[in-house]
Every structure is written in structure tokens, then in C-alpha cells.
């Protein structure tokens, strides 16, 4: 009754997060958490991370029509208030009056609360008598000391008290006693009369007045003589109406015009017209029976009965101006039952997208912020404020109870309509798929044939902000599970089953009016009640926010309700487990008392399960045994009672073949299965045996008992289920004996597996015994596998790739673990065949431990011994603590062995090897032997690096060191036992320097000078030796002088771009008679030399290693002379051959001439030396002087030498003599110099012979004559030339026309 307070959230329900193992068995997990979760009625389950079923609905084709929900009609108290105000408005409307809520202290007066408080205090008379109006004012929350109590009394007296009198049926006498005198005018509050409140509804009054205008049925209108206290019931404007508005707040007035309370503001307007009645005597007052006081006689607009205004209850002061109903009509109208409250269907059909857009737009507009930013706490408080408010009327839509059979499930299903892709197959088979959960093997609903929408087939729910589901429990008090596919959270409230009746009694106590009209109100899912109010009355309430991807489970008979925080999509279904069976039977009894229809027959379900006991889970079979026993006992008692009634006729009937609506008890609506009673008077009607006496009034002999099973069939049916349940006891006894067996009576592992498979096949319950057996078998199998791995280590590693050290560490057992494992093997309640071998392995490990300890105590590590132990330990496949130390010692031993072997071979001990050994030694564990070897290596490395650095510095020194210095360094480094490349290089350089010096001395001390090429080789060798050589500058000077002389000589003899070398030019020709290109000529010359095997002057320059191989000068001169003679012979032969060509005139076209070796043609020249002819185009022509001589004197006078005969320049003899003088000063032999000397001697010899020839008389006179003849020929040639010039000038003059003209003028 208190005013609305801010909502306080109830405590949270349990939240469970199962592991993947727990999640694999839905019913097993729910059974596991049941003892915790059922204490709150609801619980939330978060699936393991990664379990995210894809949304399988076809969004494009998904269409639905939602329900309309007016929030303030959902809450029980708010609906009671609205119904109460409806009745008050209707009461005054029927009497032609208009009502409006009064205001006290700027608050709208809560007439319902006022009525309840006055009634609780004993009624209007008691409150007035005891003067409790101040108390009433205080309880309604008004401040004291302002006369509010008198105002409340006035409003109650004027508005509510007449209605209460009408409801109580008080007589006129009692009413008159309440009004002995007129009340104080001050009792009339400010809301009565015209003023602002009347002005506010002026337009609305005109409309209502036009609609309600009708003829007056009074003969006359007299002056009002009634007390002022009754004026509230007149048709005047001072009456207040039911509009919820504030007279001084225009904005609030405009806003509230659209609220839901406007629908209840049924206002009556006064009538002003009058109707003259001619037959007044026909009307008599139905209360007093008199017809006098015609001006006070009212005519009912409903039944035409007449009443005096003062005879009415309560009496009227004035004649109403609107339609008026007599007390009988008012009673008839007010006693009509109200329509059962329910939700309307919306007109519009939505898709998911359009509904989501509407829902998000509504929420964002309502809270004036984005939907995702609205806190859930704010939405929750606002929801409970709205449902408790009469003033605000918020309407939402809810897509509830949409059958998945019509639009499809949100979970993937294997229905053949589309192919499952990806991971949809996994989720389609999941037990948490709501399409599968009702029909799982442990579910009772599996045994119900046919699909029950909402119970076996999931329902879908598309919610928006504030859309709600009211307090209810599931059909047949079953479990339910809800999964939120996506969207904003859904807020849940739950009440545990033990408080279900308490909740029902509180709701009936708080809102009895609703249950009077709808006894099964809580089964209609249309009523909410604030959880805070329930908790005030001691009802335990729990809450939770279900987010997307989470399940909410409700337990049997747990009331639950809630609302949606925003746009979302959920799916729900029912399921029943074995523990539900007795609860389901209690529910049927409850339905029987409420006369409510059943969804299915509980008896039929139990009998159907009992008919096929082998298909039942053992736990379910045990529950069926208990349930069937109770059913048989009750059925036997009921049948005995029917027989006592005298019913003798009976007939068996297969009730499951009869439709459910044709086998319902006509009294309690229960679906009959085991038996029913019928009568011949109405064969289509039947009654359950609980209501056998209520079937009809016919004699018992006319009635017939119809039964599904004869009583003799019950024991067999019960025995079959009991056998199924009791088979578990035999199995459990065998398991208990096997698990408790001693070492002598242990069973084999295979026998335990058979027992476990038997349990799985028979579907025995998942209890501690079965879990112990499973754990024992699992442990034994694990032990067997580990033992097998331990024993087959070598074979396994032969077949498989070697594992990494980390994998080995993870897979191997420690010694302690092996000991524990052996103890575990012998402690198992079953026999493991590998146990004996594992024990032998343990003994081998212990033996290895002793040997390893002995090896680790040795002074110096023995690599072979350690390696053998490591091989043995590695083959044991056990994590041995000695292995790391053995490996460590083995590394040390191998390092020491390597150091020892390396030091034994100094030539292999490089600096890099020493550094590597030291680096590898640094990584070893400390050991005195290792430390000693490390010190030796480090010392040797330091010494070696020192001498290597000194040797490197010597090799790179500028200026270079002397032989003596280097020899001392090499001698000092000789005793270092290491391979020192720089020291070796220095030693090699020293050796080469000594050899080079010895060769130079041998050459210089020899009888002949060395050739240039020999000195050049020595010079190249000496320069490459990193030692200071004393003779090297002298050699360099000699070589430079020889090269300079050779270059000077080459400039003297060689033509520009000559293809011949200086030695070739100075030596006798070997290519006489060879024609062609230079390449072919060289090849031909080589062949000639090989053929003749003569002396090759070029061979004289070959550098020989020994000085004794140098050629003697005399032999060189002799070879030159021999080659010279060969050249002369070759020239003579060539001349003779070339001269012989001219004799072949008749075959001249076959003779080859010139360098091109073609026939004669064109202008040709003859070589003076070889006498061969050459084409003018193939050879260079003689110089200009020669050409003039050729032109004047003919070809015989020209001196032409071909390119083959004239290979070089022809310097003067004086120049050659200066070159020879320079050559004599050189301490070097040059092949070119020796050739030049021979050539000079040849030239000088020819010159001597020529002088001797020219000195004879004959030759002298011939030369004189030749000189005179030559002079004459020159003069003759000059005279002929002059004549030719004069003739040429004359011819030019004769050809000139100007000159001819002048000559003609002279002649004239």
C-alpha cells in the first residue's frame, strides 16, 4: 500500500561455467548443479569459451507479428487500481456524473489507496467515529498539521462512500442516519466547482455533451432542498472527474492527454434540455411506491423505472442532467464480469531487421542516448517504475512464443532443408542445441510421441526494451532452458520451488480482485508483481542478466519472470529428467484442483516408459518404479472406491488412440489414461475416478469403468521396470568386490572393462561407484600404456624420429616416479601384465645409479666409460638424475681427449683451434683437469699470438728487415708447439731470400753476363720476398738500363705499327717465300723452323734456372752465320723462281703474283730483291721522287722493294755503332744486342766488299759513262718539258675568242 519506491535489485542467482568435460553431458551437468541452483529457482550457465553456435535462421524470410504490451497493465497492483478506477468511473457515469481526480498538496489523490486504508481501519463509520483521518493522511504520505485529514474525509464521503454503500447494498434508512445535518462548507476542497479544472476540459465537455444529449424525463424542476453534503452527487459542475492532471500545470496537462489513464476518464456531462411528459400519473417510485413529488421523480434511461431523488442510495440533491440509471440497472451493469486480461496482437508484421530498427529507435529516443550506452541498472529501475505507474502509459511489442517449426530454429538442425556447412554439423549434434535437449536419452519427454510446441519444439522470442514475460511456471512444472542467441541482455527474476505457494498466496493477498475474476491468473502469463514487494512479504527472489551466448535454466515449479533490456533474439524449450517424475504427478494433482487442462497425460507417459524398460536409463528406471508403484496404489484404491459405489460394468479401452480432448474429465479437465468412468446417459462424457461421483446422477449400474490395463497387468509391468532398476544392484555388487579385491583375487583389466561397458550399455546412473570404476579402468589403462612405453623404448626409437630433449623430459618418469609407479601397479585392483617387467626396469635403474656414482668419483673422466653409462641410461627411458652429470663429465672427458690429441700434433694446432678449444672449455662445468688444460692452452695461445704478431709485423714492415734480424726471430719461434702461419711465412721468406741472394751472386760471379730475361725473373722474385735484399737495387738498375737500350734500338729500326719484333728484324729472315696474312705467315715460319731444326734466336732469351745453361757468345755468332747463309740461299732460290715466271707467257693467266697470290693485272711493280711482281693496289707505291723517275724513265729505272723484303728502317751505320758502344757498357746480355752485333758485322763486311769492287778500272769507266748519259737524259727531258708547256699555252690562246678578235683588229 506504500507509495512507489526506487527499485532495489534482488540478489544474483548462481552462475556456472562448466569445463568442456562437464559441458559434454548437459543433463549430467544440470544434475550436478541442481542442489545449488534449485535453491534460487533459476541459474545461468556460461558455455566454455569457443562454443558459439552459428545463427541458423533465415533472416530474409523470418517474419512475425508481435504482441502489444501496455506496461502499467502488467503489474498486478497497477491493474487492480485501474480496474477499481474503471468501476468508480462506470458507477458515476451510469448515474449521469462526471468524475475527476482531486489534488491534495499538489499531488493526485490515490483513491484506491484511500479506499484500502479506510477499509483496513474498519470502514468509513469507524474512521469518522474514532477520528483516524489524520492517521490515514500520515499513512498516505501527506504532511501533518495542514487539515489534510478533513480533505480526505470529504473526498471519501463524496466519491468513494456512495460506491461502497452501493456495493454493500445499504438501505435508505441507514443512509439517512449518516446525514443528520449539513456538513461544514469548509469540507469542500478546492477541486470542486468550476475554475481552472473545468476550463481545461471545456472542449472535451462540449464533445461529450453533444454525444450524450437526451430528453429529460422529469415533469418539473424544483429548487434544491437537500443538504449541501449531498451536492457532490448532483449533475452540477462541482463534481470532480477521473482525469489524472494538475490544474496549474498546462505542459503536464498536454503531455498526459496521451497516457493510458485517459482511457479510463469516462466523464458524464449534464443535460440541460427538458422533456414535457403528459402522463405523469403512470410513473410510481419503485422504492416508496408513491407517485407524488413529480419534480423529484427520476426515470431510468435503462429500464424506465422511476425513483424519487430522496429515495435513492445515496439520495440525490439535484436532478442529474445526463443519462441516469436506476440502482437495479447500475447493479446489473457493475456486476457484469470483466473480460479476462490478455495481450493483443499487433497489426503490423515485422522482419528481424524492421523490428530491430523500431526497437533501437524506441530505446534511444526513450533514454536519449545510444542503445549500447544505457546501463542495465537504469533500464531495470525504469521498467519497474513504469509498470507501477498509472500516470504513464508506455506501449511496447514482444515477438513471443514464435514456433520454430514455422520459421526455423536459431540453432543448426538436420532437417534436410539445407546442407550443413563448416562447424554447423558439430552444433547440430550438440546436446545443448535446444532442438536436441528435450529428446536426449535421459529426457522423459523423449517418450512422448508427437511434437509439443514450446515443450519439445523450441519457441523463439524477439524482444525490445521493456518487453516482458510475466510471473509463471512451466507447463507440468517442467524444467526450461533459454538461450540468448544475440542482442542486448535479458533480465530474469526467479523464485525457488519451495516458495511457489508463498508467491501465489502473496499475489492473491495483494491483488485478490484479479484472482476473483481469474482464478488461474498465474497460468495466463499476463501478470507481474514487483520483486521488492514479494521480498517484503518474505518471498525469496533472485535475478540475473542473461547476455548473448548464455543459457538460463529454470527448475521445476520455479516461478520466473523478466524483461528485455533491448533488441535481442532468444530460444527456449522444456525438458524433464528422472527427478521431475514425482513433481510432474504433483502438478497433475494441482491442475486437477484448478480444473486446468493438461498438455499431456502423465500416467500415459509413465506407462509408456514402463512398457519398454530396456530403453530407460537405470536412474530413470528407478524413478519410474517409484512413480509406477504410487500410480498403481492410487489406481487400485480408486477402482475399489468405484466398485463400492456399485459400478459393476467395465471395459478395456486403448486410451492413447483416443484424442486428448475426447478423454478429458468433464469436471477437472484432467486427461484420463489408466481409467475413466462413463455413463449411458451421455456416452461422450467421462470423468476421472477422482470425480466419479460428479459424473451424473444416474444409478451406478448405468455406469461403466473404462480401463487401459487390467489390475493383473500391473505387477508384470512393475516387475519389468524393477528388474531393469535392480540389475544395477547386481552390477554394483560385482564392482564393489572387484575394487576391494586383494592381491590374490585381483581381476584382469579386461574384466573391469567389460563391467564398465556393461554399465554404459545398460545406461547405469553416473554415480560415485561408476565414476570409481571408470577412474580405476582409466588409471589401469594409463599405467599399462606407460609401462608399455617404458618397456618398448628402444624399439619405439628405432621406428620413430628421435624426440627433442624437451619432449623426452616431458615423457620420461623420474626414479621416484618410477618407484611410485611400481607401487601403483601393484596397488591397482586389477592385474597389469607389464608390472613384473617394470619392476625389473626399476632394478636396472638402481644398478645404473650405483655404477654412475662410482664413475663420477674418478679423478680424471674416462670418456669411454662415461659413454657406456650414458648409453645404458638412455636406454632405460627413465629420467635419471645422474644423466646430466654423466653428460657433463662426458663433455669434459671428450674435451680433454681433444686437447691431448691436438697438442700431440703441433702442426694442427692453429690459433683458431686453440680459441675454439678454450671457448668450448669455458662452457664446461668446473673440473680440476679441465682448469689445468685450460691454463696450458691459454698460455700457449698467448705466446703464439705474440710471435704471430711479431712475424706479421716483420712481413709487413716498411722498410723491410734484414736477413739477420729475421733469422733471429725465426730461431726464437722455432720451439713453439703450434701452427703459426705468419712465422712459417717468415721462415719461407727467409729461405727464399737466401736462395735469391745465392743466385744473384752466382750470376754476377760467372764468366758471362746473364740475359735480361733472367735478371727480370730474379727481379720479380726479389721484389716479392718480404726481406731486405742488398743486391736488389743493383739488379733493378741493370734491368732498367737494358730495357732502355732495347727501347732505343727498337725506335731506330722498327717502323711505325710494325708487326715484327726487334729480334725478328735484326735476325736473318726465315720467312723467305712465305706469303699471306701475318697469322698464317707466323704459322708457316714455325713449321719451317721445326723442319729445319736450326737455331732459334728467340730461344736464346729463354730464362734458365742455372747459370751454366747460358749460351756461349761464339755459339751464338756461329748460329747467326748459319742462319744468314740460309737466308741468302732462300733469296737466290726465290729470285730464280720469280724470274722463271716471266718465261711462261703462254700460261701467264695461271701464274700467281703479289701478296694476294693472284694473276697479273693492271699496274704492277717488280721488287728489286725478290724479283716478284706486285699489284699497285696491293702494295704501297714508292715515294714521289721514285714515281717521277718511274714516269720519265720507265719501270726498269725504279727501285721498288716489296713489304716482305723491306721489313724495317735502314739506319745509318754511324747510328748503329753508337748503339753498339752503349751495348758494350751494359752488364747484361740481350739477344737483340747480339743480333745487332752480328748484323753490323755483316753490313761492314758487305761494305768492304763493295768498296773493293768499285775500285777496279772497268767499273770506274762504266760509271763515268753512265753519269754522262744520265746528264744528257736529264737535259733532254727538261727540253721536252719546256716545249710541252709552250704548246699548251699557245693552244689556250688560240682557243680564247677575245684574243682572236684583238688579233683581227691588229691585222686590219
Helix residue percentage: 40-55%
Number of helices: 46
End-to-end separation in angstroms reads 174 Å
Identify the strand order in the major beta sheet. 1-2-17-14-19-12-11-4-9
Strand % is 5-15%
> From the alpha-carbon coordinates, what is the Rg to the nearest angstrom?
69 Å
Q: What is the number of beta strands?
A: 29
Biggest β-sheet strands, sense, barrel: 9 strands, mixed
Class from helix and strand fractions = alpha+beta
List keywords for this structure.
chromatin regulator, 46 helices, alpha+beta, 4-stranded antiparallel sheet, 1308 residues, 9% strand, 9-stranded mixed sheet, elongated, zinc
Q: How would you describe what is shown here?
A:
- The chain has 1308 residues and is an alpha+beta fold.
- Helices cover 49% and strands 9% of the residues.
- The chain contains 46 helices and 29 strands.
- The strands form nine sheets. A nine-stranded mixed β-sheet has the order 1-2-17-14-19-12-11-4-9.
- α30 packs across α32 and α33 packs antiparallel against α34.
- The radius of gyration is 69 Å and the shape is elongated.
- The protein starts with 14 loop residues before the first strand and ends with a helix.
- The relative contact order is 0.05.
Amino acid at each position: 500500500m506504500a507509495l512507489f519506491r526506487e527499485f532495489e535489485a534482488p540478489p544474483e542467482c548462481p552462475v556456472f561455467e562448466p569445463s568442456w568435460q562437464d559441458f559434454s553431458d548437459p543433463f549430467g551437468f544440470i544434475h550436478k548443479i541442481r542442489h545449488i541452483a534449485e535453491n534460487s529457482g533459476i541459474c545461468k550457465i556460461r558455455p566454455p569459451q569457443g562454443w558459439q553456435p552459428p545463427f541458423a535462421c533465415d533472416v530474409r524470410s523470418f517474419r512475425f507479428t508481435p504482441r502489444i504490451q501496455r506496461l502499467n497493465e502488467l503489474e498486478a497492483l497497477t491493474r487492480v487500481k485501474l480496474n477499481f478506477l474503471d468501476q468508480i468511473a462506470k458507477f458515476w457515469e451510469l448515474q449521469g456524473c462526471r468524475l475527476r481526480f482531486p489534488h491534495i498538496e499538489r499531488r493526485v489523490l490515490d483513491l484506491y489507496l484511500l479506499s484500502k486504508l479506510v477499509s483496513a481501519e474498519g470502514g468509513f463509520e469507524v474512521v469518522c467515529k474514532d477520528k483516524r483521518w489524520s492517521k490515514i493522511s500520515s499513512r498516505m504520505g501527506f504532511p501533518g498539521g495542514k487539515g489534510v485529514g478533513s480533505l480526505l474525509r470529504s473526498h471519501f464521503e463524496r466519491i468513494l462512500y456512495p460506491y461502497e454503500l452501493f456495493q454493500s447494498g445499504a438501505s435508505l434508512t441507514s443512509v439517512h442516519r449518516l446525514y443528520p445535518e449539513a456538513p461544514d462548507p469548509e469540507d469542500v476542497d478546492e477541486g470542486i466547482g468550476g475554475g481552472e479544472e473545468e476550463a481545461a476540459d471545456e472542449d472535451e465537455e462540449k464533445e461529450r455533451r453533444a454525444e450524450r444529449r437526451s430528453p429529460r424525463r422529469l415533469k418539473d424542476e424544483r429548487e434544491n432542498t437537500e443538504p449541501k453534503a449531498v451536492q457532490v452527487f448532483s449533475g452540477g459542475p462541482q463534481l470532480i472527474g477521473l482525469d489524472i492532471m494538475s490544474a496549474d500545470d498546462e505542459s503536464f496537462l498536454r503531455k498526459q492527454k496521451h497516457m493510458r489513464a485517459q482511457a479510463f476518464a469516462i466523464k458524464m456531462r449534464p443535460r440541460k434540455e427538458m422533456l414535457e411528459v403528459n402522463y405523469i400519473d403512470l410513473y410510481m417510485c419503485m422504492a416508496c411506491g408513491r407517485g407524488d413529488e413529480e419534480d423529484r421523480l427520476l426515470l431510468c434511461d435503462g429500464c424506465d423505472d422511476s425513483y424519487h431523488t430522496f429515495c435513492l442510495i445515496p439520495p440525490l440533491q439535484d436532478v442529474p442532467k445526463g443519462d441516469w440509471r436506476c440502482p437495479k440497472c447500475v447493479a446489473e451493469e457493475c456486476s457484469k464480469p470483466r473480460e479476462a486480461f490478455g495481450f493483443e496482437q499487433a497489426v503490423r508484421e515485422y522482419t528481424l531487421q524492421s523490428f530491430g530498427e523500431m526497437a533501437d529507435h524506441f530505446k534511444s529516443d526513450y533514454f536519449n542516448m545510444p542503445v549500447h550506452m544505457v546501463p542495465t541498472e537504469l533500464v531495470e529501475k525504469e521498467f519497474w517504475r513504469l509498470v507501477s505507474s498509472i500516470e504513464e502509459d508506455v506501449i511496447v511489442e514482444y515477438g513471443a512464443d514464435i514456433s520454430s517449426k514455422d520459421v526455423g530454429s536459431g540453432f543448426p538442425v538436420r532437417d534436410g532443408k539445407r546442407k550443413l556447412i563448416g562447424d554447423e554439423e558439430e552444433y547440430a549434434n550438440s546436446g545443448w542445441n535446444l532442438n536436441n535437449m528435450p529428446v536426449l536419452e535421459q529426457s522423459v519427454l523423449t517418450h512422448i510421441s508427437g511434437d509439443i510446441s514450446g515443450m519439445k519444439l523450441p519457441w523463439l522470442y524477439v524482444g525490445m526494451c521493456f518487453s516482458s514475460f510475466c510471473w509463471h511456471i512451466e507447463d507440468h512444472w517442467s524444467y526450461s532452458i533459454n538461450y540468448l542467441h544475440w542482442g542486448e541482455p535479458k533480465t530474469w527474476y526467479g523464485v525457488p520451488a519451495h516458495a511457489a505457494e508463498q508467491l501465489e498466496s502473496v499475489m492473491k493477498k495483494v491483488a485478490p480482485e484479479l484472482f476473483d475474476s481469474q482464478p488461474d491468473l498465474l497460468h495466463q502469463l499476463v501478470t507481474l508483481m514487483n520483486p521488492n514487494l514479494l521480498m517484503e512479504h518474505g518471498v525469496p527472489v533472485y535475478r540475473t542478466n542473461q547476455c548473448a551466448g548464455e543459457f538460463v535454466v529454470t527448475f521445476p515449479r520455479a516461478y520466473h519472470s523478466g524483461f528485455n533490456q533491448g533488441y535481442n533474439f532468444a530460444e527456449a524449450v522444456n525438458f524433464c529428467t528422472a527427478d521431475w517424475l514425482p513433481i510432474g504427478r504433483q502438478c497433475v494433482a494441482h491442475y486437477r484442483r484448478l480444473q486446468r487442462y493438461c498438455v499431456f497425460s502423465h500416467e500415459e507417459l509413465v506407462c509408456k516408459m514402463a512398457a519398454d524398460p530396456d530403453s530407460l536409463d537405470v536412474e530413470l528406471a528407478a524413478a519410474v518404479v517409484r512413480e509406477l508403484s504410487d500410480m498403481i496404489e492410487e489406481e487400485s484404491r480408486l477402482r475399489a472406491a468405484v466398485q463400492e459405489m456399485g459400478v459393476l460394468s467395465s471395459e478395456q479401452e486403448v486410451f492413447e488412440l483416443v484424442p486428448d480432448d475426447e478423454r478429458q474429465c468433464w469436471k477437472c479437465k484432467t486427461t484420463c489414461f489408466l481409467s475413466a468412468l462413463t455413463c449411458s446417459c451421455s456416452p461422450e462424457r467421462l470423468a476421472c475416478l477422482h470425480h466419479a461421483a460428479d459424473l451424473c446422477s444416474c444409478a451406478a449400474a448405468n455406469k461403466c469403468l473404462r480401463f487401459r490395463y487390467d489390475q493383473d497387468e500391473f505387477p508384470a509391468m512393475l516387475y519389468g521396470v524393477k528388474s531393469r532398476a535392480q540389475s544395477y544392484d547386481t552390477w554394483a555388487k560385482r564392482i564393489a568386490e572387484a575394487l576391494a579385491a586383494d592381491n590374490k583375487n585381483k581381476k584382469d583389466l579386461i574384466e573391469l572393462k567389460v563391467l564398465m561397458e556393461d554399465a554404459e550399455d545398460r545406461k547405469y546412473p553416473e554415480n560415485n561407484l561408476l565414476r570409481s570404476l571408470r577412474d580405476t579402468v582409466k588409471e589401469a589403462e594409463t599405467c599399462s600404456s606407460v609401462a608399455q612405453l617404458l618397456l618398448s623404448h628402444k624399439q619405439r626409437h628405432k621406428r620413430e624420429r628421435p624426440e627433442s630433449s624437451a619432449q623426452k623430459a616431458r615423457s620420461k618418469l623420474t626414479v621416484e616416479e618410477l618407484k611410485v609407479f611400481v607401487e601403483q601397479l601393484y596397488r591397482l585392483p586389477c592385474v597389469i601384465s607389464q608390472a613384473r617387467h617394470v619392476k625389473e626396469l626399476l632394478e636396472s635403474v638402481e644398478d645404473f645409479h650405483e655404477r654412475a656414482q662410482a664413475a663420477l668419483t674418478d679423478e680424471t673422466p674416462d670418456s669411454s666409460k662415461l659413454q657406456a653409462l650414458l648409453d645404458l641410461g638412455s636406454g632405460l627411458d627413465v629420467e635419471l638424475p645422474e644423466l646430466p652429470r654423466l653428460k657433463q663429465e662426458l663433455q669434459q672427458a671428450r674435451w680433454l681427449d681433444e686437447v691431448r690429441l691436438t697438442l700431440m700434433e703441433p702442426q694442427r694446432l692453429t690459433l683458431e683451434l686453440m680459441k675454439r678449444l678454450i671457448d668450448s672449455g669455458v662452457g664446461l662445468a668446473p673440473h680440476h683437469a679441465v682448469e689445468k688444460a685450460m691454463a696450458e692452452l691459454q698460455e700457449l695461445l698467448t705466446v703464439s699470438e705474440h710471435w704471430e704478431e711479431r712475424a706479421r709485423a716483420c712481413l709487413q714492415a716498411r722498410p723491410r728487415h734484414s736477413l739477420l734480424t729475421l733469422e733471429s726471430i725465426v730461431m726464437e719461434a722455432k720451439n713453439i708447439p703450434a701452427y703459426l702461419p705468419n712465422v712459417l711465412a717468415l721462415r719461407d721468406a727467409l729461405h727464399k731470400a737466401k736462395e735469391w741472394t745465392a743466385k744473384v751472386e752466382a750470376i754476377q760471379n760467372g764468366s758471362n753476363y746473364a740475359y735480361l730475361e733472367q735478371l727480370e725473373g730474379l727481379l720479380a722474385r726479389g721484389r716479392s720476398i718480404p726481406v731486405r735484399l742488398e743486391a736488389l737495387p743493383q739488379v733493378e738498375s741493370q734491368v732498367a738500363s737494358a730495357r732502355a737500350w732495347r727501347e732505343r734500338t727498337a725506335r731506330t729500326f722498327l717502323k711505325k705499327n710494325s708487326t715484327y719484333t726487334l729480334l725478328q728484324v735484326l735476325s736473318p729472315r726465315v720467312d723467305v717465300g712465305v706469303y699471306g696474312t701475318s697469322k698464317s705467315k707466323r704459322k708457316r715460319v714455325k713449321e719451317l723452323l721445326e723442319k729445319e731444326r736450326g737455331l732459334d734466336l728467340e730461344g736464346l732469351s729463354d730464362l734458365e734456372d742455372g747459370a751454366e745453361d747460358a749460351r756461349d757468345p761464339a755459339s751464338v755468332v756461329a748460329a747467326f752465320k748459319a742462319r744468314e747463309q740460309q737466308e741468302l740461299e732462300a733469296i737466290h732460290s726465290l729470285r730464280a723462281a720469280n724470274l722463271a715466271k716471266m718465261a711462261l707467257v703462254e700460261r701467264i693467266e695461271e701464274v700467281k703474283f703479289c701478296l694476294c697470290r693472284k694473276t697479273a693485272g693492271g699496274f704492277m711493280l717488280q721488287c728489286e730483291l725478290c724479283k716478284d711482281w706486285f699489284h699497285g693496289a696491293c702494295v704501297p707505291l714508292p715515294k714521289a721522287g721514285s714515281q717521277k723517275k718511274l714516269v720519265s724513265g720507265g719501270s726498269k729505272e725504279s727501285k721498288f722493294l716489296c713489304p716482305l723484303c723491306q721489313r724495317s728502317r735502314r739506319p745509318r751505320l754511324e747510328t748503329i755503332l753508337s748503339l753498339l758502344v752503349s751495348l758494350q757498357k751494359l752488364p747484361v746480355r740481350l739477344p737483340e744486342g747480339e743480333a745487332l752485333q752480328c748484323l753490323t758485322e755483316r753490313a761492314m763486311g758487305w761494305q768492304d766488299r763493295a768498296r773493293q769492287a768499285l775500285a777496279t778500272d772497268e767499273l770506274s769507266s762504266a760509271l763515268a759513262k753512265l753519269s754522262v748519259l744520265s746528264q744528257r737524259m736529264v737535259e733532254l727531258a727538261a727540253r721536252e718539258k719546256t716545249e710541252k708547256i709552250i704548246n699548251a699555252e699557245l693552244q689556250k690562246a688560240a682557243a680564247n675568242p677575245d684574243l682572236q678578235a684583238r688579233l683581227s683588229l691588229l691585222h686590219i
